[in-house]
Amino acid sequence: MPTSSRWIVAVKHGIDVNLTRADPATGRIELARAPRKTSDFDKNAVEEAVRLREKHGGTVTALAVGPATAREAIRDALSMGADEGVLLTIPDGNLADSRATAASLAAYLRTPEVTFDLALFGEGSTDHFSQTVGPRVAAELGIPSLCHVRQLEVDGDHLRASRDLETTVEQIETGFPAVVTVGQEINTPRLPTFLTSLKASKKEIREIPVSSLNVAPSAWSRSVTVREASVPIIPRRKLRVSGSDAASISQELVSILQREGIGRV
Amino acid sequence: MSERVLVLSPRGGDATGLTAAGRELAGAAGSVAALILGTETPTVRPPGVSRVYAVTVPGFDADRGDHVGAAVVAAVRGFDASIVLAGPTKLDGEALARAGAALDAPTVTGVRSPRPAADGVEVTRDILSGNATATELIPGRPVLLTLTRGPPPSPPSEGPFVGTEVVPLHVELPSYPFRRLSVTPKSAGGANLEAADRIVSVGRGLQKKEDLSLVNGLAAVLGAAVGCTRPLAAESGWLSDDHWVGLTGHRVHPTLYIAIGISGAVQHLVGMRDSKLVVAINKDANAPIFQQADFQVVGDLYAIVPELTRRLAAATTASS
Ligand SMILES: Cc1cc2nc3c(=O)[nH]c(=O)nc-3n(C[C@H](O)[C@H](O)[C@H](O)COP(=O)(O)OP(=O)(O)OC[C@H]3O[C@@H](n4cnc5c(N)ncnc54)[C@H](O)[C@@H]3O)c2cc1C
Ligand SMILES: Nc1ncnc2c1ncn2[C@@H]1O[C@H](COP(=O)(O)O)[C@@H](O)[C@H]1O
Predict the structure, then answer these.
(1) Whose CA is closest to A41, among A196, A148, A160?
(2) What is the average pLDDT score of chain B?
(3) Could you give phi then psi for residue B158, rounded to 5 degrees?
C-alpha cells in the first residue's frame, strides 16, 4: 500500500467562463472582476480522489492557491467528500499565473509535515487552460506526472493509469508519490447534497500565506502579463426557421440553404 | 535583443511549420536550433536551422514527457536558448511544463503568432475556454511556448543536415519507476475537418451509435464532413478524435456548419466560430447554440434530419 494514503486534489477557483461578460462597446473583459467558480475538471479530480479514499482509506485534502475567496473551491470539494482543505493565500488582486501557482503548490507539498501519495489535478483549468500546473508541480518535486488519465487504479505499491494521447491510449505503471491529471471522461462528479454541504461547512480550511512557505517571492509573482482580453464578436443572424411540422421546417431550411448558395452539391 | 530559438522537432517528421515560426521569431540577427527526438538519423533538414541536438543517452524515450522535458533543459542550456517552441501535442506540453519548472521559466501553451516585442515576447492565446482572446506579454528569458493547433503545416523539405552541426546531447534521466504496459493505437476516421468546406456536426442529442447513420446520410447529400462534440469522441467513442470540434479538438472554418443536438458549450463554440454560416438543430429552444447560429431549427433531430436529408436530395436531383 502507499505510505500515507493521503490524496491531494488541487482545485482552482477560476473565472466562470459562462458568466463573464465583455464590455458591449469594446468587447474588453476585466479579468480581475470576473465572476468565479470551481474549475470543471477539478471536480473530476475531486471525485477520483474521494473514490480512492472510499476504496483504500486515508484522507483527501483539497488544496488551492488564491485570495480568501478561493475558499469557495475548497468548500465545493469538501461538499463532495474531501476531508480537509488548505488554502495557500496570496494577496487579493494578485492573480497568480501557472508558474507562480505551481511554485506555491510545490512549496507546500515539499514541506516536511506534508506527505502524500497522489496529487490529482484537472488536466486544464476552464479559464486559463495552460495544462501545465500539474506536470510542473511534478517536475518541481521530482516525481512522475501522468497526464490526461482516463482510468486509475491503485494496487499495492503500483499506480496504474491509462492515459489518452492524440493517436494512442497508453497503459502506464508507476510508483508513489505521483501527479495525475484528469479530464471530464474519467468519471461523473457527484453532486453535493444538503447533508454533505452541511457537513462540509464544519470541516476545517487551513490558511497558509504563500509568503510564509519556502519559495522565493520571484517564483510566486507573475511572470506573464495579460495585456488585453477581449471577446471576439461574431455577428449571427439568429433567424428562426418557421414551419408547423418537421416537413415544412425542413422544406423552409432547404429553401434557405439554396438562397445562401448551398442547396447545390 | 536577438533571440536564440530552440525548436522541438515534432514527432512524426515534419518540422517546417515550427521552424518557420522559429525563424520568424529569431529574425535576421537571431539563430534557430532544433532538438530532434528519437534515435533514427534525422533525414529532414529544417531550413534555416543552424544546429541540431540529438539525444544520445541509452534508455531515452521520446514518448515520455519527463524524458523530453529533461532533453529540453539540456538543449536550452547548451544553446543558451531564449525561446523554446514546440507543437501542440499533449506530450510536448507536458515536456515544456516540466522543463519550465526545472529552468524556473514560464511555459505558455496554445499560443498563436508569438512575436518579439520591445519588452518581451508577446503572444496571442485563447482564454476563458475560447470565450476570449488575450494578448500576453512574457518579459523574462528563457520562455517556453507551445503553439496552438493550426492548419496542417506545409510539406517538409527533404535533405540531409547539410552544413548543420549535429550536437550529441547528454540528458539526465529520472530514476523513478515508470513502465509502459501497453500502447493501443486509436482508430482514425481520416476526417480532415480543418480543410472541410461543409461540416455536419453532432452532439449528445444523438441517442445511440447506430443513429450516426442519420448524420452520415445528411453529410453525404451535402458532400460534408462529419464533426462532433467532445463527449461523442472522448467519452462514448462513437466517432474518432479527428471528428472532434472545439477547444481541445479541431478548429474548423467551413462555409456551412450544421450543429445537430449540440448544446453550444463555449468549449465547442470556439472550434466552430470561424464558420461562415451556422445552422443549429436542437429541440430545446433555449439551447445556447441558437445564440451562435444564423438559422435556428427548434425540433427533434430524429424528425428533422431525415426530412431534411430527403428534401435536400430531391432538390439536388431536381436542379441537376
Ligand atoms: C476545458 C474543457 C475543454 C473542453 N473541450 C471541448 C471541445 O473541444 N469540444 C466540445 O465539444 N466540448 C468540449 N468540452 C465539453 C463541453 O463543455 C460540453 O460538455 C460539450 O460540448 C457538450 O456536448 P454536447 O453539446 O454534445 O452535449 P450536451 O451539452 O449534453 O447537449 C446535448 C444537446 O442535445 C439536445 N438534444 C437532445 N435530444 C435531442 C433531439 N432528439 N433532437 C434535437 N436536439 C436534442 C439537447 O437539448 C442539448 O442541447 C470541454 C470542456 C472543458 C471544461
Ligand atoms: N490557483 C490554483 N489552485 C489550486 N490548483 C490549481 C490552481 N490553478 C491551477 N490548478 C490546478 O492545475 C490544473 C491545471 O490548470 P492549468 O495549468 O491552469 O490548466 C487545474 O485543473 C487545477 O487542478
Answers:
(1) A148
(2) 89
(3) -85, 160
Tell me what pLDDT residue B42 has: 57
B184–A170 C-beta distance less than 8 A: yes
Instruction: Give residue A262's domain range.
Output: 236-265
Average pLDDT over every residue of B14-27: 78
Ligand 1 pocket member B203 (CB < 6 A): yes
Instruction: Kindly report the nearest CA distance between residue B245 and chain A, in angstroms.
Output: 14
pLDDT band, very low/low/confident/very high, at B41 (cuts 50, 70, 90): low
Q: Which of A130, A147, A246 sits opposite B109 (nearest CB)?
A: A130
The sign one gets for the Cα dihedral B190, B192, B197, B201 is positive
**pLDDT value for B40:** 58
Partner residue opposite B101 with nearest CB, options A102, A258, A263: A102
What is the residue whose three cell numbers read 512549496? A107
Q: For A224, which residue in chain B has the nearest alpha carbon? A: B138
Which residues lie closer than 8 Å to A218 by C-beta, 6 or more apart?
none
Q: Determine contact, residues A69/A97, Cβ cutoff 8 Å.
A: no
Q: Whose CA is nearest to atom 13 of ligand 2?
A: A122
Q: Are residues A204 and A250 in the same domain?
A: no
Same domain, A254 and A184: no
Question: What's the confidence (pLDDT) of residue B159?
Answer: 47
pLDDT tens, position by position, A68-124:
999 999 999 999 999 999 999 987 666 679 999 999 999 999 999 899 999 999 999
pLDDT at B25 over 80: yes
Kindly give the distance from the C-alpha atom of residue B245 to the centroid of ligand 2, in angstroms, as a whole number: 24
Q: Which of B295, B309, B320 to mutate to test the interface with A (most CBs of A within 10 A)?
A: B295
**Sorting pLDDT into bands at 50, 70 and 90, what band is A229?**
confident
| Interface predicted TM-score (ipTM) over 0.90 | yes
Q: Calculate mean pLDDT across residues A240-247.
A: 96
- What average pLDDT does the segment B299-311 reach? 97
Give how many domains chain A has, as a whole number.
2
Distance CA B110, CA A130 (A): 7
Helix extents (H) in B84-141: 90-103
Q: Is there an atom of ligand 1 within 6 Å of B231 CB?
A: yes
The 10 Å Cβ neighbour count of residue B170 is 10
What CATH number does the domain containing A24 carry?
3.40.50.620
Which atom from ligand 1 is nearest to the alpha carbon of B245?
A: 9
Is the same domain home to A73 and A44? yes
For residue A8, the CA-to-ligand 2 centroid distance in Å is 13
Residues with CB under 6 A from ligand 2: A 10-12, 39, 41-42, 45, 64-66, 96, 98, 101, 121-122, 124-125, 128-134
A264 and A150 co-located in one domain: no
Helix residue ranges per DSSP H, chain B: 16-26, 65-79, 90-103, 212-222, 230, 266-272, 301-319
Do A262 and A202 belong together in one domain? Answer: no
pLDDT (average), residues B236-249 = 95
A224 and B108: CB-CB below 8 Å?
A: yes
Q: Do B139 and A225 count as a contact with CB atoms less than 8 A apart?
A: yes
